[in-house]
């Protein structure tokens, strides 16, 4: 039903403005493509965020192991 209502609105707008017809045809043809693009964009952002967080955790682990190694050998360095 929503599609029929949308098509009625489009027909009315097309009668009012011929330039609008071109815009609406682009909108209708690329509507599913735009939804896919939005989901792809969100997924890639989530993936980038996940990769960034895992890199941060990995670097924090490396830094903490380095610090613990330094603390372990610190008494040996002093003597």
Automatic annotation (TrEMBL):
It comes from the Bacteria. Keywords: Membrane, Transmembrane, Transmembrane helix. The chain crosses the membrane at residues 56-78. This is Uncharacterized protein. It comes from Salmonella enterica (Salmonella choleraesuis). The lineage of its organism: Bacteria, Pseudomonadati, Pseudomonadota, Gammaproteobacteria, Enterobacterales.
């Amino acid at each position: 039903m929503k599609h029929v209502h949308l098509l009625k609105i489009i027909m009315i707008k097309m009668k009012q403005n011929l330039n609008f017809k071109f815009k609406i045809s682009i909108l209708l043809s690329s509507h599913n493509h735009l939804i896919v693009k939005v989901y792809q964009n969100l997924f890639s952002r989530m993936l980038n965020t996940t990769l960034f967080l895992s890199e941060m955790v990995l670097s924090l682990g490396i830094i903490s192991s380095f610090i613990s190694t330094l603390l372990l050998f610190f008494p040996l360095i002093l003597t």
